[in-house]
């Protein structure tokens, strides 16, 4: 998942556990640079690019500690907005100028990097560390054809429904919707109060796909998209896909997303702010949004915000415990990096892949570590709302965990999918036209 390029520079200041103040300043995209350990990078330093959001603070802190303890193995890091990173990393890899450590979401992009020889096989160096530490479903995302090419470093990131319980109660909705029919009823009640039922950052496009992915799963089960991911000809033309697109357009026509969703973007966190400011009742977002809720208003996150799994659909084949979203983020190592840079990066990953300090830091910032046997640690550090335990249990127990469509599909298919999905949400094409257009990508 990603969204549109933005030109905003964030300053992050510590305001207590999980509290970080985001202050926007206009500047060129990707201008925020962190030279951890107090100095500019030299040609011998391993290099790393990450996002400039709260979720990556634990890894940035780990780099700072590493550089202090290992002055001869420094890692120089630079941060970017989400989509700015995706565009820049593609260009850098294509030109042979990628950073030493390449961040991805796993899926098709990781396979492309491996097939192209752009990243190195980490099996001998890191397989034991990863397999012993990381939840199997998340660790699997770093493998290509049985070989390890990426180690996860971030929190587990399923998409969930977030709720402003105050707005819901004021609209006469006493509990979070658990079924599709209950969701539709809640939309009507919230709309009647004059507030936006569901915040949707449509200007970023990728938030659309969370709705599509969950609906296809709930209606037809995980097998439907698995056929699509496998590239089976005509596999988009499944009744579950048509019904999912129809239900999406039913929501749009019901005014569920208001009138300005197509211009709202996620990278500047304005979508999260609408929920915090009592302007909307619900939002479908990845668990990565939770640190932003905490950062914007910790009291709201602890006392007013609630969350649940995506609603079930009557007569659907999918298990209500199935998840979609990002498994995590993964670090790979560039094959173009020098031998010393590769060795330093491997040493860093071996010593920091969900170390105790990393796990603690992640929980402090609101990110849930996909680490085996840390239930007690998660529970001990849980929020008043129980968010950490909710996410950890969901990820551990999910019968199926579908990687975000835009990461699971090859980049050309993913771009076509996002463009056509946008047209579905804007009521510019019919569900069947969406299916027909997508089937062309499999011919």
TrEMBL record:
It comes from Bifidobacterium catulorum. The lineage of its organism: Bacteria, Bacillati, Actinomycetota, Actinomycetes, Bifidobacteriales. It comes from the Bacteria. This is Sugar ABC transporter substrate-binding protein. InterPro entries: Bact_solute-bd_prot1, SBP. Gene3D superfamilies: Periplasmic binding protein-like II.
